[in-house]
Predict the 3D structure of the following.
Amino acid sequence: MNADQLRIKQLEDAIREHRRQKADDRCIEDDDNLYAVLGDGIKCDRSVGNKFEKARNCLRFIENRCQEGGPWKSYIELEKEVRRMREVGRMMVNELRLAGNYLNYRTPKEIMKEINEVFGDPSTETDFQ
């Protein structure tokens, strides 16, 4: 690998590492790590005032981006939901496979009767309930 290829790999690795940091987990330190790869010694702008102001800004970031039940779901909440949905999907596929085997031995009339017993007969429902 020549020098240019090594430099491209170094830059790509830094970008990938930064991208791996999810928004809720990303901090100004992660930006500094990315910018350090440029080698020019310039860090991200940290002019937030004194350390207490910076701490307040960090807390505000956490409150606005990381809280459970806030206006936006956190990445942790979203990932948990995706895992749950995938598991439900897997269970549904298994149920459909079992149902397919089960339905092969039943008449359509028997199937509709069972569906109506479980979910109610739609012909008897009204919009006034």
